[in-house]
TrEMBL record:
It holds the Pfam family Cas_Cas7. The lineage of its organism: Bacteria, Bacillati, Bacillota, Clostridia, Eubacteriales. This is Type I CRISPR-associated protein Cas7. It comes from Pelotomaculum isophthalicicum JI. GO terms for biological process: maintenance of CRISPR repeat elements.
């Protein structure tokens, strides 16, 4: 079932002696707002964790590599398109379940029931080789109708197999495809809720062999409590086919994807909390960036090295959510806390929520 409700969500994690998101323009140092000593983490970092985790679970993702090599979008599109065209039973099922797409296929390629890939390329390649001035009227009509067929075909592929496009969308800057897929899930850049300090000693030594060694650098920060704000839009969900099951996956992948990324630079990160306001189906708005409601306290004369050095007060958020509930805009509030911090004195006055288990295993696809 496609989503029919908007949501706001807030995802918080802590980072200790790690590098959450290296900046290639700054020698891979942690991304920083140096004016405020605030750590920054891009939305691309969060999405990459989610994509990698989904891929490990057997899900198909579009923003990926082929044979361990990065490829441009048009190459990946051709790969995905041809994968579907080459599977006759899959194509037949697809056309049987989408009469409009079947009508467009028949109009462009005839009554074929098999060899879809050969038929598609034989006709497309034959016409594209011709100069424009040599095209007859039926070939001109074919080229005019091809983008609409590609749009419909790709949309069906996305709805049936490409979960990352269903979640995050894509501009699809590909020849022969004119549709843009706006992602229902939008995630802001994360930032630390307090000033952070970078570890000043970065030089390490890597031994290469018995006769020589080389010096390198690892850039880390001491501690940060980072929060991302995000939204889920029901209207964009209709276009990409994002479902309620996709939404459940997204929540779990935010938490489990972060933990799954145990590289040398990312080790030391732990998810702390996830809060989501699910609005009623007839409500079209959002409360807005939930981070602005948080009040973070700390001793300015002491270094911040752990969560116990902070106190995050959710009281303003709790009041704002209650006001939205009183007006009948909110259907439910969902939440998850890291088990170690359920009774934490550092995260106080959180809004009441229906608990969701975001550590529950995601079944791998075969």
């Amino acid at each position: 079932m496609f989503l029919n409700q908007n949501s706001d969500f807030l995802f918080g994690f802590q980072a200790s002696m790690t590098n959450c998101n290296g900046d290639p323009d700054q020698e891979n140092k942690p991304r920083m707002d140096y004016e405020t000593s605030t750590l920054l983490v891009s939305d691309a970092r969060r999405k990459r964790d989610i994509r990698d985790f989904l891929k490990n679970k057997g899900y198909s993702v579009f923003v990926d590599t082929l044979a361990d090599k990065k490829v441009p979008m048009d190459v990946m599109f051709e790969h995905v398109r041809d994968y579907w065209l080459a599977n006759n039973s899959q194509m037949e099922k697809l056309l049987n379940e989408n009469s409009y797409l079947a009508e467009k296929w028949k109009l462009l390629y005839g009554e074929a029931k098999d060899n879809f890939k050969d038929i598609y390329h034989k006709k497309n390649d034959g016409i594209k080789k011709k100069a424009k001035k040599d095209l007859n009227e039926s070939e001109k009509i074919f080229l005019k109708g091809l983008p609409e067929f590609n749009n419909l075909f790709l949309t069906e592929i996305i709805k049936r197999s490409l979960i990352d496009i269903r979640l995050f969308g894509s501009a699809m800057a590909v020849e022969g495809v004119s549709r843009t897929y706006t992602g229902p899930v939008q995630i802001t850049w994360g930032y630390s809720l307090h000033p952070v300090e970078l570890v000043k000693s970065n030089t390490i030594t890597s031994i290469m062999n018995e006769d020589s060694s080389t010096f390198g650098k690892k850039h880390k920060l001491y501690y940060a409590l980072v929060a991302h704000y995000g939204t889920i839009n029901k209207y964009s969900a209709r276009l990409t086919g994002m479902t309620e099951n996709d939404q459940d996956l997204l929540r779990k992948c935010l938490v489990q994807g972060l933990m799954s990324n145990q590289t040398d630079s990312k080790q030391g990160q732990e998810p702390l909390f996830y809060l989501e306001i699910v609005y009623r189906p007839d409500f079209d708005g959002y409360l807005g960036d939930l981070r602005r409601f948080l009040k973070v306290g700390y001793d300015e004369d002491k270094p911040i090295r752990k969560l116990e050095d902070l106190k995050v007060d959710f009281n303003k958020l709790t009041s704002a959510v209650q006001e939205m509930k009183d007006k009948g805009y909110v259907e439910k509030m969902l939440g998850w806390l890291h088990p170690s911090y359920i009774k934490s004195n550092q995260l106080i006055n959180m809004p009441e929520f229906d608990p969701v288990d975001l550590w529950a295993p995601i079944k791998a696809r075969e």
